[in-house]
Amino acid sequence: SGRRVLVTGASAGIGAATARRLAAEGWSVVAVARREERLAALAAATGIEVRVCDVTSAADVAELAAHLAATGGVDAVVNNAGGALGLEPIAETDVELWRRMYDVNVLGTLRITQAVLPMLRERGGDVVVITSTAALAPYPGGAGYTGVKHAQRMLAETLRWELVGEPIRVIDIAPGAVETEFATVRFAGDVERAAQVYAGYTPLTADDIADTISWSLSRPPHVNIDRIVVRPRAQANNT
Ligand code: NJP
């Protein structure tokens, strides 16, 4: 496409699959995350430009924005960095985990979006936000994640409204269960408990979500895909 896209959380899962997919389609991709060695492997395998950026660090995001502005700007951003932390009932849940989860998913999306908005305003572009089916409905143990993903969804919907009249599209992609490292992070490395999340059905793959992102970005300029919910066919809940 000849356009340039920033993908956050691109060292694994949905972000890595999206970076690869968009690069294969001709996008110039800037892939960011915290884990340098993962990014180096992605760069070695694909030639994609990679940079370390923790979306919870204002300094990291400012440095990234300066780099992007100095190297041609961007035409799109995929706010994908995020995930769930903690999955305990409210009676036992950890305040600090909720704080960290909000910082990555919501404030991370806010920092990155604010950083690239001047570039998108200049020449038009797309803001993609990866939310969740969990933004739709509560479930036991899910209050923290559901709240965070709902806040992120409201950020996307508000931004779309605030930008009416400007050449910027805002696209919310809401996945159901996708087989990535997400469940392992969420259960703090407890792989057995993570596997239970997918018990009884076949989860989506990261490529399924990369497909959806790619399709949404390739609509003609007068079309805004507001929100797509993608779920495993047999997934019966929002967990
Ligand atoms: O998860 P995972 P997914 N700064 O753990 C990065 C949503 N979602 O691909 O920094 C920058 O494999 C981390 O990189 P690193 C979910 O909420 C998923 O499934 O190196 N990057 C890694 O690349 C999330 O928003 C499911 O550790 C940071 C990536 O984020 C998105 O999909 C269901 C970071 C996470 O990769 C991608 O998650 C659903 C930071 N501070 C929504 N912290 C699902 N998988 O079932 C983390 O509804 N990252």
TL;DR of this structure?
The chain has eight helices and seven strands.
Helices and strands in order, then pairings?
Blueprint: E1 4-8, H1 13-24, E2 28-33, H2 36-46, E3 49-52, H3 58-70, E4 76-79, H4 95-123, E5 125-130, H5 143-162, E6 168-175, H6 182-186, H7 191-197, H8 206-217, E7 227-230
Parallel strand pairs: 1-2, 1-4, 2-3, 4-5, 5-6, 6-7
The chain binds 5-hydroxy-NICOTINAMIDE-ADENINE-DINUCLEOTIDE PHOSPHATE.
Would you write up a description of this structure?
With 239 residues, the chain is α/β, with parallel strands linked by helices. It has 8 helices and 7 strands; from the N terminus they run βαβαβαβαβαβαααβ. β1, α1 and β2 form a beta-alpha-beta unit. α1 packs across α8, α3 runs parallel beside α4 and α4 runs parallel beside α5. A 7-stranded parallel sheet has the order 3-2-1-4-5-6-7, sandwiched between helices. It has one domain: Rossmann fold, CATH 3.40.50.720. The protein is globular. Helix content is 46%, strand content 15%. The chain binds 5-hydroxy-NICOTINAMIDE-ADENINE-DINUCLEOTIDE PHOSPHATE.
Bound molecules: 5-hydroxy-NICOTINAMIDE-ADENINE-DINUCLEOTIDE PHOSPHATE
Percent of residues in helices comes to 40-55%
CATH topology: Rossmann fold
Strand content: 15-25%
CATH homology superfamily name: NAD(P)-binding Rossmann-like Domain
Total number of distinct structural domains: 1
Q: What is the N-to-C order of secondary-structure elements (H for helix, E for strand)?
A: EHEHEHEHEHEHHHE
The best one-word shape is: globular
